[in-house]
């Protein structure tokens, strides 16, 4: 049985299956990709503002170099390596989706989640050590910046882990595999932010 149609239009059988819901696009760019880039643009404003203010204060306070000597540089370096590794596994997840290997993509995302968890555990260890030593967020302006910038970044790491797990669960069901790319873009942003924070807070302040 065919559905009623207007003159000049072919009839479509009522039993025809619905077409696959492909990602919608705007100006030839998938809507999801466009959305994540707009979101990251707002995040750049937030982190960029914090970094700019910190650098301006740092130029006026050369004594912050001595305070930065109390940060755990080795732990920060290890966390840098951990995040770089997690970004690599997200790239592998995206490539696996492109090849249609959703099982491998799921495994790669789980590896990224594990690495992100390791990052947070190390960061918690750093915070504990610094606070025990008396370096709290109210111990001075440098420490206020340190905890504000690294704490905000840690919240983004946590949010990224939740997003990756959500996308991974969908991928395991064969749903919306294209979202692996979107969550991967966000995760790479988190990685890049840390690459800026590490030298600014752990290394460059040691002059």
What is the alpha-carbon Rg in Å? 23 Å
CATH superfamily: Cytochrome c oxidase, subunit III, four-helix bundle
Count of helix runs: 6
The run of helices and strands is EEHHHHHH
Mean pLDDT: 86
Which CATH first-tier class would you pick? Mainly Alpha
Ranges with pLDDT <50 over ≥5 residues?
A: 1-22
Strand arrangement, largest sheet?
1-2
Here the CATH topology equals Four Helix Bundle (Hemerythrin (Met), subunit A)
Reported CATH architecture? Up-down Bundle
For the biggest sheet, the summary is: 2 strands, antiparallel
Describe it.
The chain is mainly alpha-helical. It has a two-stranded antiparallel ribbon with strand order 1-2. 72% of the residues lie in helices and 2% in strands. The protein has a single domain (43-206), classed as Four Helix Bundle (Hemerythrin (Met), subunit A). It has helices at residues 31-60, 64-68, 73-98, 102-132, 141-172, 179-203; strands at 25-26, 29-30.
Output the keywords:
Four Helix Bundle (Hemerythrin (Met), subunit A); disordered N terminus; 207 residues
Précis, in short:
The protein has helices spanning 31-60, 64-68, 73-98, 102-132, 141-172, 179-203, and strands at 25-26, 29-30. The protein has 6 helices and 2 strands; from the N terminus they run ββαααααα.
Any chance you could write out the topology, listing elements then pairs?
Elements: E1 25-26, E2 29-30, H1 31-60, H2 64-68, H3 73-98, H4 102-132, H5 141-172, H6 179-203
Antiparallel strand pairs: 1-2
């Amino acid at each position: 049985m065919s559905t009623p149609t207007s003159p000049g239009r072919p009839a479509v059988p009522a039993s025809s299956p619905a077409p696959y819901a492909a990602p919608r696009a705007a100006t030839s760019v998938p809507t999801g990709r466009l959305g994540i880039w707009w979101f990251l643009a707002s995040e750049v404003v937030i982190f960029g503002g914090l970094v700019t203010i910190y650098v301006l204060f740092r130029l006026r306070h050369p004594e912050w170099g001595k305070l930065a000597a109390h940060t755990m540089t080795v732990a920060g370096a290890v966390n840098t390596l951990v995040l770089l590794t997690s970004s690599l596994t997200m790239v592998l997840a995206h490539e696996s989706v492109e090849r249609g290997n959703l099982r491998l993509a799921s495994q790669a995302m789980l590896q990224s989640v594990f690495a992100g968890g390791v990052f947070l555990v190390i960061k918690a260890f750093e915070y504990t050590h610094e606070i025990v030593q008396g370096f709290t967020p109210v111990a001075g302006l440098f420490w206020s910046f340190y905890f504000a910038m690294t704490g905000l970044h840690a919240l983004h790491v946590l949010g990224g882990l939740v997003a990756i797990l959500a996308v991974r669960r969908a991928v395991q069901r064969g749903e919306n595999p294209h979202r692996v790319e979107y969550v991967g873009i966000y995760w790479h942003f988190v990685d890049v932010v840390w690459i800026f924070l590490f030298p600014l807070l752990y290394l460059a302040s040691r002059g």
